[in-house]
Write a structure and sequence with these properties.
globular; 8-stranded mixed beta sheet; binds flavin-adenine dinucleotide; alpha+beta; 428 residues
Length: 428
């Protein structure tokens, strides 16, 4: 694993004070141990501590060093599936619960920031899903209509409107979801950690958990250096960074690399031509790109990257081409930041929640939408841990089912990406 991408990202801020790490004490016993201190682990920790549980978070890295502190900061409600599909697939009761949950995840993020007065730069000006083909325009229209029917003031965008709102070339239309917005993800993750600590949670950074086993009615959590602790329950929130801790878990996920670039700060003139109303954007391509304005007047753009870890800036060249294709005026502008992180996909494109044994909860598979989803899911996992009412979790509790031929995933993903890129190009 390449270390230090937090420092290379556009989110790094030298004014951030180091977060207090509270080293694991052997023979510690808590109500809830949480493995993974990303948005899911920290949101769970905050809620559990506020409910009066004793909580210990253990993270193999520094808080913010993985996906939660490295992402694009786009807070997008909804799942990959539209409301009608969710109702058809899951039936009225579970389907409605999923639609309500998916619709509200951005509210959870922005409400938390405002209510807790978090020091997190944010804005809520909506998300544009920009359509690259006629078929994608029709899909966008259908998607917007389904949310409009549910009272969301979404808007279908014509070619002229999407061009005006993005300033980008080549999109044929799309839709605007006003529930969405943007945050500074590293500040958000660090602030979640800060208020979780204030609420009573203890966080040990640089503490990889190596095994979890049940003995005499308690969970024994072993960490590096032979340190161990016990807990009444455990939440595993390792998402795309899942290792062998939970047998089979890593093989249920397709961990992809998402790469991002950020330009040097842009001139006022250039900034005024790009996203004049400050929405965040992702497009409809199978191998999509996502973009927004970022800190210091930089333009940020991300998309899929190679499965191999990058060895030179060439690994980000496809994103530089995409940026200049969309915004020819940025030709010649320096790319100052390049970084990447890991996203977890599942074969059914839904987050998975497992309970392999009572008191051991696992959630993973954010599909690149985890800022809102994982913020909202954490408290629900904790409420389920306390009450055992499965209706509190919007997703069904499923067994851990490894993907067949997972060992060949990199070959398969590489071939699929090349194939989808080709189709995207032909559709242009
Ligand atoms: C480049 C990039 C761009 C993205 N853009 C967006 C976006 O714009 N909007 C959006 O909603 N989502 C986006 N995502 C996805 C989003 O970042 C994730 O869905 C979200 O951060 C997942 O949070 P998490 O807490 O589940 O996992 P993570 O943040 O990945 O945290 C998992 C933690 O588990 C720890 N861990 C793993 N194994 C162990 C172990 N054995 N012991 C202890 N700790 C362990 C890791 O160190 C890590 O800190 C993006 C992701 C990337 C990588």
């Amino acid at each position: 694993m390449v270390e230090g991408y937090q420092a290379k990202s556009a989110w790094a801020d030298p004014t951030f004070a180091p977060l207090a790490s509270d080293a694991l004490k052997s023979s510690e016993h808590v109500d809830l141990a949480i493995v993974g201190g990303g948005i899911l682990g920290l949101s769970s920790a905050l809620h559990a501590a506020r409910r009066g549980l004793s909580v210990r978070v253990l993270d193999a890295a520094q808080i913010g060093d993985r996906a939660s502190g490295l992402n694009g900061g786009q807070v997008i409600p909804g799942l990959k599936y539209d409301p009608d599909w969710l109702l058809q697939h899951f039936g009225q009761k579970r389907g409605e619960a999923l639609v309500r949950f998916a619709s509200s995840v951005a509210d959870d993020v922005f409400d938390l920031i405002v209510r807790e007065k978090l020091d997190v730069p944010h804005q809520r000006n909506g998300w544009i899903q920009a359509a690259h083909s006629e078929a994608a325009v029709r899909t966008a229209e259908q998607r917007a209509k389904q949310w409009i029917a549910r009272g969301v003031p979404a808007k279908v965008l014509s070619t002229a409107e999407v061009t005006r709102l993005t300033g980008a070339r080549g999109y044929l239309g799309g839709w605007l979801d006003p529930r969405a917005g943007a945050i500074q993800p590293l500040a958000y993750t660090r602030e979640l950690a800060r208020i979780a600590i204030e609420a009573g949670a203890c966080i040990a950074q640089n503490t990889r958990v190596t095994s979890i086993r049940r003995t005499n009615g308690a969970w024994i959590v072993n960490a590096v250096d032979g340190r161990s602790m016990s807990a009444r329950g455990v939440i595993v929130a390792t998402n795309a960074y899942a290792d062998d801790l939970i047998p089979g878990l890593a093989r249920t996920l397709l961990p992809l690399h998402s790469f991002q670039i950020a330009t040097a700060p842009l001139s006022k003139d250039l900034l005024s031509q790009i996203l004049p109303e400050d929405q965040v954007v992702s497009d409809s391509r199978r191998i999509l790109v996502y973009f927004r304005k970022g800190p210091d007047g930089r333009m940020l753009l991300g998309g899929r990257g190679s499965m191999a870890e990058p060895v030179s800036s060439d690994a980000w060249a496809h994103l530089e081409h995409a940026l200049k294709r969309l915004y020819p005026a940025l030709e010649g502008v320096t790319i100052e930041k390049r970084w990447f992180g890991r996203v977890a996909l599942t074969l059914d494109h839904l987050p998975h929640v497992h309970e392999p044994e009572p008191g051991l909860l696992v959630a993973a598979g954010c599909q690149g939408r985890g800022v809102g989803l994982m913020t909202a899911l954490g408290p629900r996992l904790v409420d389920y841990f306390v009450s055992k009412d499965p209706d509190l979790i919007p997703f069904p509790l499923t067994p851990i089912r490894p993907i067949p031929f997972h060992a060949f995933r990199n070959i398969g993903i590489g071939a699929a990406i090349a194939w989808y890129r080709l189709i995207d190009m032909l559709e242009r």
